[in-house]
Specification:
α7 links the parallel β5 and β6. The longest helix is centred in the C-terminal third of the chain and has 20 residues. The chain is globular, with a radius of gyration of 21 Å. The protein starts with a helix and ends with a helix. It contains 14 helices and 12 strands. It has 2 domains: 234 residues, 3-Layer(aba) Sandwich (Aspartate Aminotransferase, domain 2), CATH 3.40.640.10; 133 residues, Aspartate Aminotransferase, domain 1 (Alpha-Beta Complex). By secondary structure, the chain is of the alpha/beta class.
Length: 382
């Protein structure tokens, strides 16, 4: 049966559950470190939870299906997923990456991967000529985040896929901000899709997880060997929490997107707001590209206010919206990138990208839109 996305979020592909004969509606948490063998030379298919666990496997099957991938692998965090991915490369390999990435990814690239001999170059991937111009003999991959964090730049995934295919490069896409509900990079030509499962997939700000979705079997086997060897697989209970969150993913994404558009339009009319970065606004430079490759615009907004004092006042005065890191949950969160997500980026690099004292990032939750607007209004005006 060819199921719709909403149904897959609840039931997966409705495959027979060989691990469960109890009729449990909620997939069980297999909280075990090891599995007994029926006899010498025989296995139930599970041996040791570091290698695989039924609860984690169920999550991986659902994510692979939602992203139209061959396989998916769940990790203890988004950064653990990126770290495992970078183990595919060897010293001297050159990787082109979007120059506006999540700060944790940049920290890993700059302080761990470069130390280990990888040549990572940051470019504006929204400009295709930058990609073509910087490919060299040692280039092995292009790593893209779209929209980017926190400046919401949009890259054309189909066009980049044509370039990477021509040059035999691995094409990696961080799809955290839009989730598989709004965007499916593998269907657009990507080889690997990355998710911080902590964010929209989990959706409740209650667990940390990461996922890699692979387009082909050979690549999936390489990543599975890495996770088995290094031991960063997601725990059974956290796998269950992400499974539970995914069940409401379509409902949350639609509600959050609707509110985000209203707030983005409201912010545009505030005298203390100088710029609004939301890919659902027709004025956004990446609006048409995103419309071409995605089914929605998500619920992430960044905006510049007029002064640092306005930014600090807003952070201190919001009451319903919480001043906290992370994003994608049912609770609305406001973040100060220069002090939080991008604090480890050198100041001159941050400033050049617009990540300055006046920039705020807002993750819109599922609260009633009137309450969110009132909270922002009182924070601006008090």
């Amino acid at each position: 049966m060819n199921l719709h996305f909403h149904t897959k979020c609840v039931h997966g592909n409705n495959d027979e559950r060989i691990t469960d004969n109890t009729g449990a509606v909620s997939y069980p948490i297999y909280q075990t470190a090891t599995f007994a063998h029926p006899s010498v030379g025989n296995s139930t298919g599970y041996d040791y939870t570091r290698s695989q666990n039924p609860t984690r496997e169920q999550l991986e099957k659902i994510i692979a299906s939602l992203e139209n991938g061959h396989d998916a692998i769940a990790f203890s965090s988004g950064m653990a997923a990126v770290n495992a991915l970078m183990e595919l490369f060897v010293p001297g390999d050159h990787i082109l990456a979007s120059d506006d990435l999540y700060g944790g990814t940049i920290r890993l690239f700059d302080h761990i991967n470069k130390k280990n001999g990888l040549d990572i170059q940051y470019i504006d991937t929204s400009d295709l000529t930058n990609i073509v111009a910087n490919i060299k003999a040692t280039t092995k991959a292009v790593f893209v985040e779209t929209p980017t964090n926190p400046m919401m730049n949009v890259s054309d995934l189909q066009e980049i896929a044509r370039i990477t295919e021509k040059h035999n490069l691995l094409f990696i896409v961080d799809n955290t901000f839009l989730s598989p509900y709004f965007q499916n990079p593998i269907s657009l030509g990507a080889d690997v899709v990355l998710h911080s499962g902590t964010k929209f997939l989990g959706g409740h700000n209650d667990t940390i997880a990461g996922l890699l979705v692979l387009a082909e079997e050979a690549l999936a086997q390489k990543i599975r060997f890495i996770v088995k060897t290094t031991g960063a697989g997601l725990s059974p209970f956290d796998s269950w929490l992400i499974l539970r969150g995914i069940k409401t993913l379509p409902l949350r994404m639609e509600a959050q997107q609707k509110s985000a558009l209203t707030i983005a339009e409201w912010l545009k009319n505030q005298s203390r707001v100088k710029s609004v970065y939301y890919i659902g606004l027709p004025s956004h430079p990446g609006y048409e590209i995103n419309k071409k490759q995605a089914r929605g615009s998500g619920s992430m907004i960044s905006f510049h206010v007029d002064t640092e004092q306005t930014a600090v006042n807003l952070l201190n005065k919001v009451k319903l919206i919480r001043y906290a890191e992370s994003l994608g949950g049912v609770e609305s969160l406001i973040t100060y990138p220069m002090l939080q997500t991008h604090a480890d980026i050198p100041e001159e690099i941050r400033e050049a990208k617009g990540i300055n004292h006046n920039l705020l990032r807002l993750s819109v939750g599922i609260e009633h839109i009137d309450d969110l607007i009132k909270d922002l209004e009182q924070a601006f005006n008090d």
